[in-house]
Amino acid sequence: MSEAAPSHDLSKRRKIPRIPLAKMLARMIREPRNERVDMLGNLRTLYEERGPVVGANAIAFKMVHLFGPEANRVVLLDKDRIFSARRPWMAIMGKIFPNGLLLLDGEEHKQHRKIMHTAFTRPVLCEYTERMNPIVADAIGQWTEAGDDFHVFPAVKSLTLDMAARIFVGEKLGPGTGRMNEAFEDLVAASMSRIRLPIPGLEFHRGLKAREFMVDFFRAGIDARRAGDRGDIFSRLCRAETEEGDQFSDQQIIDHMSFLMMAAHDTTTSTLSSIFYELGRHPGWQERVREECCDAGKESFAFEDLESTPALTQVFKEALRLYPPLPVIPRIATEDFEFDGYLIKKKSMVVISPIMTHHMEEWWDDPHCFDPDRFSPERAEHERHTHSWIPFGGGPHMCLGLRFAEAQVKTILHHVLRRYRWSVPDGYRMPVQQAPISRPMDGLPVSLTPIG
User: Which residues contact 77 (CB under 8 A, 6 or more apart)?
Assistant: First the structure.
């Protein structure tokens, strides 16, 4: 597939195959949870039945799915600056996470990203990683008595939330942890709500209440953080200033912190759960990465160690390939454009699919198989195309916190692998809810055994 040259001869353009609106509505009524649970299956059906460009007439807009690495490259790099990230994400989560970095476009996005970068420089990431180690060591020490009744997802989610509170906010949440966790659950669920009305009892209303909780929580601390010299991300954003003197307003700090806290612990929990599952099913790989961690001879993990853990890096990348936390990425086309011979009209919602690209047989050998060696220098399957592996997006909106996320995941695994072995029940297959963020639906039960 390649980007086609513009053509003024409409007769030479292909007609986009479309899914009838009636068929879409019937499926939503018949299988209301299917889009969240098996998004990959739905996307694969579209691709196999209708090809790499598929249209759908939704109620409020026209949607076009573009499948494959070349489509990812065109949309994510956005060389002509014709794709808006703000418009679709505001429609999806604007009431819940308004004006987070993901929801900004153009110069505003560039400016905010520049200010925020001061909280994610290499020296600062080294400091964050150093502070992660005692938090992880203390938390996983409480897992000792779990035995055969250990559920990975809630345990890891509690740990990553505590890490987010300590690293991002600089304090233990204490009794507020439960409310914070509940707030994030409600915020993420509300972002996928079909009924977006503030009716008490519905998930969208719970999301709005959770938003109020987060706004109050962060607003109360801004003045003190601006006046102080603390090193957590919240404090750094309060004081962040570019060479030109640009700073965030109070409301911008609140919006960015709400979104960052969600992204930092929900997506990391998703990735860690996927890794736990696959290493539980593949004890050979579990031992391989354990030996790598133990051979380093270090109790703690440092940011500098990111590049000296090749086996763990391959496992990390393979888990993100199989279970990308964000399964699809939407954009709104602000101009007509042509792709692969198809004319795609202005105002269409253009959707690319990391989860589908990561499972395409055209680009990956045996794509449904857990095989971290595909990322080895010898095989390097991810280098077959610049945009065949995109768990962190790409282009101007490439995830700003990707190195932080990698450090967080590897720090946790470094400690867990040195302290425990685990396995999943024979024949067990993790039931996955793929959207809005990939997660195990049963909490991921494992048998956890202390080493030594």
Answer: 394, 395
- 84 is in which domain, residue-wise? 10-450
- The strand pair at 349-352 and 62-66 is best described as parallel
Q: How confident is the model at residue 93 (pLDDT cuts 50, 70, 90)?
A: confident
pLDDT at 33 over 60: no
Q: In angstroms, rounded to a whole number, what is the distance separating the alpha carbons of residues 407 and 6?
A: 43
Distances (CA, A) of 166 to 133, 229, 269, 381: 12, 15, 16, 37
SS (H, E, C) 294-348: HHCCCCCCCHHHHHHCHHHHHHHHHHHHHCCCCCCEEEEECCCEEECCEEECCCC
d(CA 426, CA 391): 30
Q: What is the pLDDT of residue 3?
A: 44
Q: Which residue has the tokens 């065109």?
A: 74
Angle between helices 203-219 and 177-190 in degrees, nearest 10 = 130
CATH of the domain at 233: 1.10.630.10
Report the distance separating Cα 26 and Cα 387, nearest Å.
Answer: 34
CA distance 421 to 144: 11
HSE-up of residue 303 (Cα within 13 Å, Cβ side): 17
Look at the chain and report how many structural domains it folds into: 1
In the chain, how long is the greatest CA-to-CA distance? Answer: 73
The answer to whether position 2 is within a domain reads: no
Q: Do the bridges between strand 53-57 and strand 18-19 make them parallel or antiparallel, or are there none, so unpaired? A: parallel
